[in-house]
Amino acid sequence: MFNFPKFLKTNYLSAVQLIVVFYAAATIISMIILGLPFFHDEGVELSFTNLLFTAVSAISVTGLTVVSTVDTFNAAGAFALAFVLQFGGIGIMTLGTFIWILLGKRIGLRERQLIQIDQNRTALSGLVRLMVRILKTILLIELVGTIILSTYFLNYFDTWQEAWLQGFFAAVSATTNAGFDITGASLIPFADDYFVQSVNIVLLILGAIGFPVLIETQDFLKGEWDADRANNSFSLFTQLTVITFFGLIVVGTVLMLILEQDAFLDDMAWHKQLFYSLFQSVTTRNGGLATMDVNELTEPTLIVFCMLMFIGASPSSVGGGIRTTTFAIMLLAIYNFARGRSSIKVFRREVDTEDVIRSFIVITTAVMLCMTAIVILMVTEPFPLLPVAFEVFSAFGTTGLSMGITADLSPIGKYVIIFLMFVGRIGIFSFLFIVRGKVTRDKYHFPKEKVIIG
Amino acid sequence: MFNFPKFLKTNYLSAVQLIVVFYAAATIISMIILGLPFFHDEGVELSFTNLLFTAVSAISVTGLTVVSTVDTFNAAGAFALAFVLQFGGIGIMTLGTFIWILLGKRIGLRERQLIQIDQNRTALSGLVRLMVRILKTILLIELVGTIILSTYFLNYFDTWQEAWLQGFFAAVSATTNAGFDITGASLIPFADDYFVQSVNIVLLILGAIGFPVLIETQDFLKGEWDADRANNSFSLFTQLTVITFFGLIVVGTVLMLILEQDAFLDDMAWHKQLFYSLFQSVTTRNGGLATMDVNELTEPTLIVFCMLMFIGASPSSVGGGIRTTTFAIMLLAIYNFARGRSSIKVFRREVDTEDVIRSFIVITTAVMLCMTAIVILMVTEPFPLLPVAFEVFSAFGTTGLSMGITADLSPIGKYVIIFLMFVGRIGIFSFLFIVRGKVTRDKYHFPKEKVIIG
Ligand SMILES: [K+]
Ligand SMILES: [K+]
């Protein structure tokens, strides 16, 4: 009989292929769900391409839309969409975390505890336990978010039903970093409401910061540090990703404050400037919700946003892009090289050379992928370079912001964006694994020879 | 007494700093030369910024111009400019090759022979010998080029003096990949003259293919293979750079043929299409001469050209950019990773892991540098994204093509471009070395810890 857990343990390749199978299945299921006329407003007709686009956008929690969500889906449809977002966000978070744990050659005690692989349990039961823990965590965050937002929305909406529908959808959309909205205008109606924005920022960050960070923080707060762990502190991953994550939020906020000083932010009160910049900085990193039309921003700001969307969220989160750790390791590698150091030391740990090479492979592959997509779209679409580049980086970062060209893309353009959302979501690393053969230790070696670089 | 050769041998850092000292001195000298009113047409007034820009553009053999060369310099000035180009092209080629040899930890027999470091000679005499050999090679190429072009130009120009001045300048500008012209319109007057274009293509390639390739080919043709060399063949560097160099020329040609089929190349004879595409593909990689106005091209082609300019020429050549070997190693690393191989084997050799990391560091630093420059220029200049990006990649690749905004740049914009030409010319690798401390082997280690990537 086929031994699934053993198969998973011994064959890492298949573990990654799980993601593809999961996503193919999830896309088909969500196409069926979202395609049901029962969930549509009256008279809505969705083409195959637009239905596929919407399904992939929802499953990858990107939030780019070729059709207006509020004009396409009815109240029941909003719940169906929220379910798909949930499924996409949590599914990939679980699989991503699980595969990372399996791929790591030496499974550490903390990770072992995380998926409960020991003599008495199998990898499969570990996967189930992990998924349950992630599901519990995310649902708890969404529940609290829904209660807060819905109660508060009673001020905005006429009926409590409408307030709770809006609050529920907003909480799910923010926590899963989906970027979909049923207001019809993202968070622009709340551009002056700092409370709604603050709640959204917290939910967006909790979804995008990475599940291992949430787990470790939870353990820390409960005082449940692993007794076997030599160094009783947060893991290198958590420290690296948290610093990078918040560092990039600060960089994005400050750059928007500077670049838009004489433009969009001109003559605004300081708190208004701060909230516009902070919210947009947070949302470019994966959320895709916005308190303003990005077309109102100047071109330098939009280029900076392209870079922030490209970097994206933390690994093992609901977010896409090259991921924060990848970016951090690149910066550390460059810095240490420029300082003449032979190893990368950070937070009293050393980064593995293999991880350094992996990071660089992810970054350069992503750059080439996005550049190729831009060239193709420049051929097939009639738009200028900036809106096209913005769309590409938004799709790859599964951010979902747009300068407004999504619905007007040609079919080829839509399929390019669909592909980018898919790759951005499963990650370049997993994407390369799909085409990867079995890792083989070399049986023979050629002499090494150095070449002239750069 | 200060022992210069020993200092060079023991302190690699200083060997790289030589480049900076060389370039600072060379820039000042060429500013003085090019600033002499004796070399100017009557009534010409050069501002300090424009003189510095012209000097750096000439010394880095980029060819971007803020003033028209033909309207600024007289015949004597053309010779002076040719001298500066010569100096810039050969100087960096020599230093680049020399420093690479010193930096290589184990100096191979072939390299040892190249700079003649043995018991009886010092590094300094090796440097001098190397420079003499490079000088001889380049001058020979230029001499042959001048004779061919000047003789042929008798058909184009009224006097033999004019024909020889044009032929001499064209040969020097092409061989050093300078991209300067004294026709006032680059090679556009020769857009239908395949002979002139072919000669230029050969000269451009000989200048940009890298000095070690020229030396090895020379040795090979003379039958002077090093008897001590275990594997009697071309070095890994030569094989890698030659394949990449010509591969990229083919890619550029084919892409322009495809992308401009219904645009610029529409309704042209096949040979005309081929020559337009081939010449532009060759020139983007470093030459900067052009047989057409790049503004006539469509945006996808211009974006592809940006990428080709960014990659640039071979190391230890007159060219800039990230260099062909860097790009090749990146592709090999991604391919081998995707195939699940633990080492990079190519041409019966293995690439050193350190070289892989160096390549990625060069590429990512270059991308960040160019993106930062683009954001700054988008703030300071009134032009759209594409012309700005084109200018930035052209400067970094020391290519010298432009969509026509160079002369209209603000002073800040000009200094950004000056900086990029400088860094592009000395190379990111040397650039990082400038800020680099002494390389230290680690005295202590922290435990390694893996993190989640991409
Ligand atoms: K999103
Ligand atoms: K040039």
UniProtKB/TrEMBL annotation, chains A, B:
Which InterPro entries does the record cross-reference, listed alphabetically?
A: Cat_transpt
The cellular component terms of Gene Ontology attached to this UniProt record, alphabetical and capped at eight, are:
plasma membrane
Q: Name one GO biological process term.
A: metal ion transport
Q: Where in the cell is it found?
A: Cell membrane
Write down the superkingdom of origin.
Bacteria
Give a single Pfam family match: TrkH
MF (Gene Ontology): monoatomic cation transmembrane transporter activity
Please give the start and end residues of each transmembrane region: 12-39, 51-70, 76-103, 134-154, 194-215, 236-259, 302-335, 356-379, 412-435
Tell me the keywords, alphabetical order.
Cell membrane, Ion transport, Membrane, Transmembrane, Transmembrane helix, Transport
Q: Where would you say this protein principally sits, based on its record?
A: membrane
Query: How does the UniProt record describe the way this protein sits in the membrane?
Result: Multi-pass membrane protein
Would you tell me the protein name for this molecule? Answer: Ktr system potassium uptake protein D
Supply the source organism for this entry.
Planococcus lenghuensis
